[in-house]
Specification:
By secondary structure, the chain is an alpha/beta fold. The chain contains 13 helices and 14 strands. The chain folds into two domains: 5-250, Rossmann fold (3-Layer(aba) Sandwich), CATH 3.40.50.1970; 270-385, Dehydroquinate synthase-like - alpha domain (Dehydroquinate synthase-like, alpha domain), CATH 1.20.1090.10. Helix 6 (203-220) runs parallel beside helix 10 (292-309) and helix 10 runs antiparallel to helix 11 (315-327). The structure holds nicotinamide-adenine-dinucleotide and glycine.
Amino acid sequence: MIAGIELLNLTLLRFPVCFKLHMTSITTLKVVLPDHRSYPIFIGAGVLDQPELLRPFFAGRQFCIVTNTTVAALYEKKIYELLVSNSPGAQISVVRLPDGERYKTLETLNEIFDVLLQDRHNRKTTLLALGGGVVGDMAGFAAATYQRGVDFLQIPTTLLAQVDSSVGGKTGVNHRLGKNMIGAFYQPQAVLIDTDVLKTLPEREFAAGLAEVIKYGLIADADFFSWLEANIDALNNRDPQALVYAIRRSCEIKADVVGQDELEGGIRAILNLGHTYGHAIETEMGYGTWLHGEAVAAGMIMACELSVDLGWLDPDILTRSKDLLLRSRLPISPPPGMSAEAFMKHMSVDKKVMDGSIRLVLLQGCGKAVVTSNFDQQALVSQLRKL
Ligand code: NAD
Ligand code: GLY
């Protein structure tokens, strides 16, 4: 341990509840929270073919499916029928948002409120977030704020949303001056992860999700990182068993961290490995030009490089990380031409800045993350100047 540093490693994970539902191959994890706000994560192939899983989470008879134009064409009918079979005669509204990170704005959010108000949804309504992280973050924020808070279910349809954004209750939208700057912590009633929906996910989006999976190995579980090295080809081929294992392990780690620190007072920030650099890339390039997962991949390598420069991380871990990300078809360096000034401008807006110094997630080993501003900030400047 390095003196004076807020050391937040996860070598002693408390695993959440994990058991198999009888007669199905569905794994259930639990995000454990106070005040009766704990909720299950159902994971498996065919989760959305099991209406009985949903039934306990319907508080009323009004529902609003929030999705986007792309996902609607693929899965809206399935969810609609799931609702009808569970709740005959229910009132079901649908909001189809435009597709893309650039629409993750307060302006687009109003499209959800317009439908909820026009269709007279009351406080017992339930929103269903059907889509990737953009839809999930926006529908979650709409649920947090509509009539001061209504129920919502996360039905993530990208790998990134299945392993990260659908779990943990971070909701919100972007502002032109910073990503995810307007939002709320607001937990769903349940998360339904059906790995079958990944069959239609484009290659580039799938790879972006792998970045967040690899993140979990780096921050919390060296054995999982080794497992990923051994199984990356199976994952790239979307082998169902490998996928379920990778998603389950990722959600276990995320659920455990969120259960310890829901509001990111401390340890939860380790989930942001690579994100401070990554958000700078996303904002500088224009939202949606680099995918979130791609920016995080390059950002994780930058965080590893700085950790090596500081003498905290064995260079071998940096080499292995680069290799694993390349095999996942992800970038390992920032956009050519992005200057040190551009990084500093965006990194100083990031939510992890404290008292003027930049706080970063850095590594002291594989599976051993620290969140700290107590490092030689000049080393960061030197790193960026080399770009
Ligand atoms: P996304 O939501 O933009 O989805 C990616 C693309 O895939 C979109 O075009 C979408 O329409 C399409 N798509 C979704 N599911 C599909 C499917 N099954 N088949 C075919 N196409 C499909 O992007 P994302 O990577 O899922 O999420 C990124 C967002 O998540 C960012 O806004 C990021 O800030 C946010 N995020 C939030 C958290 C959190 O904790 N709340 C964590 C990580 C990321
Ligand atoms: N994606 C980071 C978090 O949920 O805290």
